[in-house]
Amino acid sequence: MITTLPCVLVAHDPPPDARAAFRQELGSGCELLFRSDLAPAEWDAARARARVLIAQNPRIEIAAEDVAAMTSLGFVQLLTAGVDHVPLHLFPRDLPIASNAGAFAEPMAEFVLAMTLAAAKRLPVEHREMREGRFNQFVANRTLDGAVCAILGFGGVGRAAARLFRALGAEIHAINRGGETAEEVAFVGTLAALEDVLRRADIVVVSLSLTATTAGLIGAGELGWMKDDAILVNVARGEIVDQDALYRHLVENERFFACLESWWIEPVRHGRFSIAHPFLDLPNVIAAPHNSASVPGAQLEAARRGARNARRWLDGKAPSNLLGADERGA
Amino acid sequence: MITTLPCVLVAHDPPPDARAAFRQELGSGCELLFRSDLAPAEWDAARARARVLIAQNPRIEIAAEDVAAMTSLGFVQLLTAGVDHVPLHLFPRDLPIASNAGAFAEPMAEFVLAMTLAAAKRLPVEHREMREGRFNQFVANRTLDGAVCAILGFGGVGRAAARLFRALGAEIHAINRGGETAEEVAFVGTLAALEDVLRRADIVVVSLSLTATTAGLIGAGELGWMKDDAILVNVARGEIVDQDALYRHLVENERFFACLESWWIEPVRHGRFSIAHPFLDLPNVIAAPHNSASVPGAQLEAARRGARNARRWLDGKAPSNLLGADERGA
Asked: Which end of chain A is more exposed for a tag (fewer CB within 10 A), N or C?
């Protein structure tokens, strides 16, 4: 008997707990196939009947010929929150594609707070000073209580970060596309308010999607608007900040701090890590290897959320996190 | 006319804003004198009529002969929260002495969170790894959401830290003298529960006063009870933790993290910083120069609180933070 259940193809090789989550969330009403379980001939055959494709990193998991062979494909579920590294041009323009936006919001927000506090408390600076024999007990560090925290991009990560910063007494000035939010903020506006927001911020968190609008958003001019002791945190995409301008700004403003978790050239997106300037040696930089989402259980939670969203599509309901024209490079 | 107003002697040289706070809080109903304003003969005369002594660091500000000359002294207000470095033996045993406990609770709690998060997110480790060319994007870091946070000493700092940790989703297991608290905790008990609490803790915050009971409280046995990847944070006094045992434990348990803000031999208490082992070079140590209270406005706030407490004594009311027999080495 030929199965008539819709075929869901998982392009990567998830660990056992994530496989179980896919099975549980998608239920028995579909044919669930993991590419890594299939012989080449089975994969070729499965492509033709795939209704849903689930992928972790399509850049390395899916070739153009695979997509061309997926003639029954109705929906693509990506398991990552950011999708700028996904070769979206491979897919038909009218094929619905969903990201996993918000799946890592809580651990990422906690990471934002960790880096911000490390900068505010000068942890790496004073550890180094102690190693060099200086015990700077009375050099002031800073408190987030009462600080103005600008959050550029008020999606899942931005809102989760805002909740943590508020718990420490900071005031939230948010920027998003609509200029409105149901969250408790001191200010919310669109990018039209960017200059005002940057000028009053003690902390600037970049948690925007990378789009044609946001690429290069923070350049020399925008850095110049910020306070000379501001803390800039980037957990979005390197390309949103002008790399050369940031390096120059850090060298010229030793009280300015940059907390960089996302980079311009990175392994997942580009196959390697590379920087144009020695950011890692600056005393006013805290660097992290794009690992804010790497907490125990995060990949499992991402699998669960992605599978649940694919199930919605299979059930004829509207899936969440559908990519808009701006994210698809329209 | 000889003044009949009670004389309040300030032993250190406060900055202008703190002087103004002393004047404001103590009011016009006393003779307020700053030692640094007095000629030697004036100081000698002032000593004899001082009713209240306010001091920042009596070890260097006050000599035995000064105290002997203070024959009218009725109350001593210390401006620091910890008092183990104060030469209390100089003062009569029945003279009331108050600390400034809790004056720095909020900034210190924020510092505790900063160090804990830096350890949980492996910030110094991964920055160093990146510098050495490794981009460990998928090495797991930890979240405080759901973590068990033990707080040893549930005074001002401990309670303020608990509020921050709770906001991040951690569960609080507190230890204090009474074994009771009005705070929202998952567990509260006395030191009798220490082993159980240490065994289940992901994070252990030491925020106890240094007394005969707490000196050496955390030794090799207690470290052995902790999880091998626990995070130990000491913002109290070095002496509460056995220095040799801690160093050995850190070397033998590379997943164990120590966040050390207070030390065994420190400038304010001992005139110099000195450690018996190279803690500063260990990858699983985050070191800070006892600076958790050094935020803008903290000294001013301490002056204000201390002056207000002295005012209470002058008004015949019971002052806060009177030192108990255990803190006075009874």
From this structure: N
